[in-house]
């Protein structure tokens, strides 16, 4: 194998690793956002419940 072939193979491997890292990072961020939204929804429901309990007492 000559020098150019080795560089092409290393470039392809590097590109695959970069794409994998980018995709994994985006998946992680989207899951983090989904968790934050779920906790936000729970906070809203708990505040509504607290207001109703306070209103009835």
- Give the radius of gyration: 25 Å
How is the main sheet built?
Answer: none
Helical content band: over 70%
Unreliable runs, pLDDT <50, ≥5 residues? none
What is the overall shape? rod-shaped
Output the helix-strand order.
Answer: H
Number of helices: 1
State the separation between the terminal residues, measured CA to CA: 82 Å
Count all strands and give the number. 0
Report the portion of residues in β strands.
under 5%
Give a concise summary:
The protein is mainly α and 57 residues long. Helix content is 95%, strand content 0%. It has one helix at residues 3-56.
Report on this model:
With 57 residues, this protein is mainly α. The model has no long low-confidence stretch (mean pLDDT 96). The protein contains 1 helix and no strands.
Could you give the topology of this structure?
Blueprint: H1 3-56
Keywords, separated by commas or semicolons:
mainly alpha; 1 helix; rod-shaped
